[in-house]
Amino acid sequence: MHQPLSGLRVLTIEQDGAGPYGTQLLASLGADVIKIENPSTGGDSGRCAGPYFLGEYDSEFFQTFNRGKRSMALDLKDRGDRRIFERLLATADACANNLRGDLPAELQVDYAHLRKIKPDIVCAHLSAYGRDSERAHWPGYDYLMQAEAGLMAMTGEPDAPPTRFGMSMIDYMGGAMMALGLVSAVLGAKRTGRGCDVDVSLYDVALNQLSYPATWYLNEGKCAERQERSAHPSVAPSQLFRTADGWIFVMCQAPKFWGAFCKAIGREDLLANPAYADMAARRMNREKLQNELDAFLSTRTTAAWMARLGGVAPAAPVNSMSCALGAPEARSRIETVSHPDKPEGLKLVRDPVRINGQNAPSCRAPKLGEDTRDILDEMLSDKPGDRAAE
Predict the structure, then answer these.
(1) Are residues 55 and 157 in the same domain?
(2) One-character DSSP codes across 345-370
(3) Which CATH number goes with the domain that contains 236?
(4) What residue ranges in 169-288 does DSSP mark as E strands?
(5) In this predicted structure, what is the pLDDT of residue 362?
(6) I need a surface site. Which of 37, 221, 333, 361 has the fewest CB within 10 A?
(7) Which domain holds residue 354?
(8) What is the pLDDT of residues 183-198, one digit of tens each?
(9) Do β-strands 9-13 and 94-97 pair in parallel, antiparallel, or remain unpaired?
(10) Taking the mean position of all CA atoms in its chain, how far away is CA 312?
């Protein structure tokens, strides 16, 4: 199949989830992503992230973020290994890392150092607080960004403690932003012959995700308050409602959907009620509308309501993870890859980008240093390669 990043080589010094998530997106689109891993420290720390392990220095966590990459065992502080790294760098388009903000300069993997080897190299950095910040030397993680940027204060029920997202979404957004910046800068370097530094910080990503509520606050001085039932701050009904066996999320974001919703559930009478005449009225009477719809929607199961609403008015069941992954819509999004320590194969959720309607073929993440010999052989022969899907 067509892989748009075929021919792009990215060296990466990464660990855990944020950086590896971004470079895996590049690998799934055809890039040759080579993890530079220090064998004396066990390589990427995600290899030892439990509780589910796959042999030595491998785990299901690591496999989630590193499919389709290659691994080369090098210690960048060792003089001989550094020379190998620099020779390999001369064949690369980009060098990425998700190191603490003060470390790229110390390890000499920023553009100021690497341009001497390859003037058009792109150096992509994903750190907690940025390389030029007073907090460059601070360690930082996703949950801390959610807390400091105000996202936790916006999440959860009004009378509950501040609540984090269910997953590390700032990590994943940060990785995706780094990948976007990297590819964009490589396009520029191909045109100009000059590389650059690309910087993304988790803090900046988290602050950016405040989105339009930040615009409201900065211009109107109003903070978006937490709403009951995860409701939208300005649209109604756009929230959770009870059903006979669980919950359903309804989103009538446009007037036409309010009409379609009422007709689909057999409550055209709501359309004639002055309390719900328009969006402003429904927002003003949100609690009354919630109580009325709760009582009515609780008479049938979530599945029964989805049979009426699906494709007619925006609505979704509130699924457990087992229900979500077992749904017919999810089955084609799950792949099984061969793994030597998982005889039955390792099941994983595919990356979300499709090209011409197809997902790229995938292979497991590499063992620590698994591709070192092959990459050294390629360097001697000047012939690029990659691990084929297994």
Answers:
(1) yes
(2) EEEEEPPS--BTTBPPP--PPPPTTT
(3) 3.30.1540.10
(4) 196-201, 238-242, 247-251
(5) 87
(6) 221
(7) 9-208+331-381
(8) 999 999 999 999 999 9
(9) parallel
(10) 30
Does any domain span residue 221? no
CATH of the domain at 337: 3.40.50.10540
- Rounded Cα gap, residues 306 and 319, in angstroms: 12
Distant-in-sequence, close-in-space partners of 345: CB < 8 Å, separation ≥ 6: 336, 337, 338, 339
Structure tokens that stand for 357 in this block: 């309607």
Q: What is the pLDDT of residue 383?
A: 66
* Lowest mean pLDDT segment, chosen from 307-311, 342-346, 353-357, 379-383: 379-383
Residues, the chain, total?
390
- Mapping DSSP to helix (H, G, I), strand (E, B) and coil, where does residue 87 land? helix
* CA atoms of 187 and 279, how far apart (whole Å): 45
The model's pTM is 0.94
Q: Give the model's pLDDT for residue 388.
A: 45
Tally of domains within the chain: 2
Whether 95 contacts 89, CB under 8 Å:
yes
Task: Tell which of 317, 339, 368 closes a domain.
Answer: 317
Across 375-384, average pLDDT: 86
Mean pLDDT (the chain, rounded): 96
Same domain, 186 and 274: no
Total Cβ atoms within 10 A of residue 116: 11
User: Which pLDDT band holds residue 386 (cuts at 50, 70, 90)?
Assistant: low
* H or E segment and range at residue 145: helix 142-148
Task: Give the integer Cα–Cα distance in Å for 358 and 372.
Answer: 31
- pLDDT score, position 44: 98
Neighbouring-strand partners of residue 39: none
Sign of CA dihedral 354, 348, 33, 197: positive
In the chain, the amino acid numbered 94 is A
Name residue 166's amino acid: G
Q: Is 376 exposed, middle or buried (0-12, 13-18, 19+ CB in 10 A)?
A: middle
Is 2 assigned a catalytic role? no
Residues 285 and 357 in one domain: no
Specify if 213 maps to a domain: no
Distance (Å) of CA 257 to CA 133, 252, 277: 46, 5, 13
Among 113, 125, 137, 232, which one carries the catalytic annotation? 232
> Is 373 a member of any domain?
yes
